[in-house]
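Hello,

Our lab assistant flagged a job as stuck in the queue for most of the afternoon. It eventually completed. Since we weren't sure the result was trustworthy after the delay, we are filing this so someone can double-check. Below is the sequence as submitted and the structure that was eventually returned. Let us know if re-running is recommended.
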Amino acid sequence: WLSYQKGLKGILDNPFNFDRIQMQLTHSWLIRYLGKSSIVLQAGYVFGDVPIMETFNIFANNNGFGLYATESFATMHINEFVCDRFVALFFNHNFGKFFKTKWLSPDFIFVTNIGWGDIGDVQKHEGVTLKSMNDGFYESGLVIDNILKITTSRIGFGAYYRYGANSFDKIADNFAFKVKISFKL
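-- returned structure --
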């Protein structure tokens, strides 16, 4: 998918003139006897004079409540990074079911998420401390999906670890744990 926004200076008292483009590409493929891999590539760029609310605040999912969300960074705190240009890659490989019982049929999913982003003119955002991902952002994890299945719902669990230049000094702060709940309609 592709998204384009245009800010028109002077229209409805808008003081900003900018262009904002964002895209996403998705691809999945089966590997015989080994499972299914999926990759999602997202990118965005803002041109022109933009307020901070029109920049990208990256897809973070670490807000203290551990619900799983696809195509987001599980160990990144909400509003931790702000960028006017970014690239994010979300990769997962589902090894499938190793065994199946009436109540259990776990899928083992390996996940790696990588992101890069930067912000150009920091001076125009006075009074706000901005942190960009120009050193990259890296995390990997293991999700065990369908640990428990009850009629139309499935429950899973995931553990993620943040590493690289934007990791925290305290090792425990780099972990995030998620509960995955899905419903079959």
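-- support follow-up --
The delay was a queue issue, not a problem with the job. The result is valid. The first strand starts at residue 2 and ends at 7. Residues 52 and 125 are 7 Å apart (CA to CA).
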